[in-house]
Structure formats: structure tokens, C-alpha cells
Write a structure and sequence with these properties.
about 290 residues, alpha/beta, Rossmann fold, 6-stranded parallel sheet, 13 strands
């Protein structure tokens, strides 16, 4: 039985779609800390919700990096205190396997072309710092025997149906649908784009892992794409002009910007047999199809 926190979120909904497609038995909890949902810091409510399950996939918590600069305490509460509370509940009710969804933001600004799981954790945002702290809580739970098995997953730039409209991919999709010139804050920033359905599949593979102990895995395509190339892909898919206009300021200061963030994904391939199946070109069409 699988329990999911953050089931109402962008990634959570993709996991639910995948569970339905595979006819898995799941106990699903809409735990995301938002109004009308169970508070991720309410241990008794978590214990009642997840009683009888043996595996938790932990997705709850806000994910907007830019917003974390203005609300660091709220992000720390959701990701650090929330994870600590969930782990305490999991120990009380006998959960033995735990999948913690972290973020590539924990790496900060790496000095390698492709960052591996062994790279230093040097976050530049309150969100990234909170994710590092949450990872340490999960690691400690395994070391003290509160969990038999835990997998920390660090997704890179996740996109797809249901993504935030004000993020880079969401903005490009909106402009492409209107056949407008692509307007971006920077043309040469490189990211590793991962379709949310590929991530959902990987999370369920991690949840099925039987090996004891802690494992940390990057999940990404392993391919770097700069903003100019991404914008061009949207322009082609939308049938609009290929003009690229660079203007304005991004969602973080230049001093905190991360110019290049691409994953080494060999460990996920070797240990889970997981790799991406959705190409960026197909993913772009998927985003535009959702908006049609």
C-alpha cells in the first residue's frame, strides 16, 4: 500500500495518473499544507490517514524557488518540520519504505558539467536549504532504524501538464499557443528538463525498491538545453515566429543565478533501470496540447 503526500500537486497528480494506469493499490492522502487539506505538521492526522500502509511517497510542500526568498520560514516549516512530523508518524504506524522527493536545487551552482549525487550540497535558495535539511532527516531515520529503506530523489527541471503557468516553460507554452515571439529573461541558461510523467514512473519504481538502507538518485534526462533552444522548440511546435526577445529580470538576482544545471543520471539507470522515455520535442507538444 502506498501513501502519497502532496497528491493534489503538480507531481502528485502525475503519480496518481500513473498509479491508475498500472492498477496499483494505493492509499492516497491529499497532504500538502494548503487550506482544506491535512496540515503536514499534524502528526496525529497523518497517523490516522496513513494507518495500514507500508510505503510513503513524500511530495508535499511549496516548490517555487523564487517565492522562498520572501517566505523562508514558511518553506522551512513545510519542508523541514513537515518532513520531521511525517517521519515521526511513519515510525509510529510502521511504515518501512519512504521515497522523499527533494530537488536539484540542493546542489546550488555546481562546478561540473554533469552533477552526480556525490556532489557537495551548497544550496543558494531557502527552498534548496530546506530540502537539504529534509534529506538529512530522512537519512537519520534510516540510520537509527526507523525506516528499513528510503530513496531520496532529486528531480531536475520538471515540466508537463499541470505545471505552473508563471514558470519558464508555462510562459513559453502560453506564448507559443498565441503564436507570439518568444520573450525570455535569459537565452543561455542551461537546464535538464524532465517530463513529469517520466518522473512519476521513476518515483513508483523507487517506491518498489526492496533493498534496505538509503539511496539517493538524480532523476533527469541527462541532456542540457539552453533557454534559446527551448524557446525555439516551442515556436516550432506552435507554428509561430522563431524570434527570440531577451528582456527583463528573472525570478532571482544575478548573484544567485545558476547558469548550468545538468544531471549525471547513470545511478538511476544502474540501480532502478529507469531512464526518460519522453523526448523534449514530444514534451513540448504535450504542453501545447494541454492548452488547446
Amino acid at each position: 500500500m502506498i501513501g502519497i503526500t502532496g497528491a493534489n500537486g503538480f507531481i502528485g497528480r502525475a503519480v496518481l495518473r500513473r498509479i491508475g494506469a498500472e492498477a496499483c493499490v494505493a492509499h492516497v492522502g491529499p497532504v500538502d499544507g494548503e487550506a482544506g487539506a491535512i496540515d503536514i505538521c499534524d502528526q496525529s492526522a497523518l497517523e490516522a490517514l496513513f494507518a495500514g500502509i507500508d510505503t510513503v511517497v513524500h511530495l508535499a510542500g511549496p516548490s517555487a524557488v523564487a517565492a522562498s526568498f520572501n517566505a523562508p520560514a514558511a518553506f522551512a516549516r513545510a519542508h523541514v518540520l513537515g518532513t520531521a512530523t511525517l517521519l515521526a508518524a511513519a515510525e509510529r504506524i510502521g511504515v518501512r519504505r519512504f521515497v522523499h522527493v527533494s530537488s536539484a536545487e540542493v546542489y546550488g551552482r555546481p562546478d561540473t558539467a554533469c552533477v552526480s549525487e556525490s556532489a557537495p550540497l551548497l544550496p543558494l535558495s531557502p527552498y534548496g536549504a530546506a530540502k537539504v535539511a529534509a534529506e538529512q532527516l530522512v537519512s537519520g531515520a534510516v540510520r537509527r532504524g526507523a525506516l528499513d529503506s528510503a530513496t531520496i530523489v532529486r528531480p531536475f527541471s520538471v515540466y508537463g501538464p499541470g505545471m505552473r503557468a508563471n514558470g519558464l516553460v508555462g510562459r513559453l507554452a502560453a506564448q507559443a499557443r498565441l503564436r507570439q515571439p518568444m520573450r525570455v529573461f535569459s537565452a543561455d541558461t542551461v537546464r535538464d528538463y524532465l517530463h513529469v510523467d517520466d518522473l512519476a514512473r521513476g518515483l513508483l519504481m523507487a517506491a518498489a525498491r526492496d533493498e534496505p538502507g538509503l539511496m539517493t538518485l538524480n532523476m533527469a534526462s541527462g541532456i542540457g538545453t539552453d533557454v534559446a533552444a527551448l524557446a525555439a522548440a516551442f515556436a516550432r511546435a506552435g507554428g509561430g515566429p522563431d524570434a527570440l526577445i531577451v528582456e527583463g529580470q528573472g525570478d532571482r538576482s544575478r548573484a544567485l543565478d545558476i547558469a548550468h544545471l545538468v544531471a549525471d543520471v547513470s545511478l538511476a539507470r544502474e540501480t532502478l533501470g529507469w531512464r526518460t522515455e519522453i523526448t523534449l520535442a514530444d514534451g513540448v507538444c504535450d504542453c501545447l496540447g494541454e492548452m488547446a
